[in-house]
Design brief:
Layout (H helix, E strand, L loop, with lengths): L4 H16 L10 H18 L13 H28 L7 E7 L19 E4 L4 E3 L7 H4 L20 H9 L4 H20 L3 E7 L20 E3 L4 E3 L10 E6 L4 E6 L4 E5 L4 E6 L13 E7 L5 E6 L2 E5 L8 E3 L1
Antiparallel strand pairs: 1-4, 2-3, 5-6, 7-8, 8-9, 9-10, 11-12, 12-13, 13-14
Length: about 325
Amino acid sequence: MYPTMNGYKTKLADFKTEAKKGRTVQWWTNIDELAREVSESLHQQMDRKKRPGWIRGDAFDIEASHAEILSLNKKIRELEQENAGLKSQIVKRVPELMAAVVLDQQEDEEEDEKGLKTHGKLLIDSSDNAYKIQLYHNDGECYKNKYEPLDLSCVESYLKKYVKEKDLQAYNAALPSEEEINDYVHQMSVYKTIINGGVAFKIRVLNKGTAKATDIRISIVFPKGIFVYDMLSQEIIRPEADLSDVNITRIRPLNETELLVATEGMGVYKLDMNKCILERYISANYQSYNEMNGNNINNVFVDEEKRIWLSNYPTGITVIDYRYENYHTDNL
């Protein structure tokens, strides 16, 4: 149903009432009156709020503006150069570690004519790069003589009347076995070597870098014939494996306490840093096509899934994954 004329008029009146709320309203009846009202309103507004309007070209100081622009450009270049200089002085904060094995100087040590502490006269000379140590000779066979079996021929003639055959037999029966004696001789030899032939060292680590170092691991290889005695655990550190005659190509962490040591010719070894135990971990099996077929390891890598990747000559790449039962290696 269409609205009537009266309905339109009603809506127009409502609109006018709403439009006049809070506003200044001027009424006009023809076009000339509208133009006059607009012109008067503009002049009243201009008088009420002054505005500069357009600036004439002859009123603008172009020389001063050009000088200001040049000055600002010069300041920008100077700030850019200063910024570049400051960036060049920024040093990346990284640790720089230096590890050294130094003598543990004891207060009660004797000194030679050079003022060098002799460590039981075993230390011959020392420098910044090396220590010259005199080897201690220990004859362990002397401990073995204490447990030799006896007979009447070993007894002096004036004492034979006090010694009976059954007493000698009981003594010989109570002697330790040959295996026990050999073990005792070995332990005594090691003990005497430590007591009489030991030189006390300690590890010194210096950080000359600009950042703190964490999770530090130090690997030390000692020559053959040298035992390392841990003063804290009071144990001899003597790994069963010997890598002194083989080239080590890479050392990688397997986990928080173990390292993988890749070698040229002897496969991969595992080093337990807490227990100081070095054992053979991965070696070639030439009888199987699904295992590592070479012991010349150029590189080793452990990925996020704990798989071990080996670059071994001449077969290529071997991937080892111990998560699967009956799984050995994959040769690529």
